[in-house]
Design brief:
mainly alpha, two-stranded antiparallel ribbon, 4 helices, 6% strand
């Protein structure tokens, strides 16, 4: 009886050892799967970022984009065009003086009371 009882205790200990090992391995597998999921998400984010940068690179090669950047950053205009300068903050000034137009004929600052009149003066 004593031998049978020792054998039973031995098998119970072996089974417990195996169960604990299986549980530890299961947790490791779960952690590895989470790391794989995070890595896949990062890869997807990097692919989206790469796509964005490739589009931006292609856009920068476009002649219209280059012309727009030159006009905006270097404040250059084509011959015959007029530049309209608006104040930085329209809240600081009232509507009557918010829109100003530089008259190329008189070389003076012309103030008008309404926006429609400003546009008419600009194009006529």
């Amino acid at each position: 009886m004593r031998f049978g009882r020792l054998l039973t205790i031995f098998f119970v200990c072996v089974i417990m050892f195996l169960v604990v090992g299986i549980i530890e391995n299961s947790f490791r597998v779960i952690k590895v799967e989470e790391r794989i999921k995070l890595a896949q998400d990062k890869v997807e984010d990097l692919k989206k970022e790469k796509f964005f940068y490739l589009q931006d690179q292609n856009k920068r090669k476009d002649a219209q984009y280059i012309e727009k950047e030159i006009r905006d950053k270097l404040k250059m205009i084509k011959p015959g065009e007029k530049m309209v300068v608006l104040p930085n903050s329209l809240k600081e000034e009232n509507n009557a003086s918010a829109y100003r137009l530089y008259s190329s004929q008189n070389k003076e600052l012309v103030k008008t009371s309404n926006n429609l009149q400003n546009w008419l003066n600009l194009f006529l």
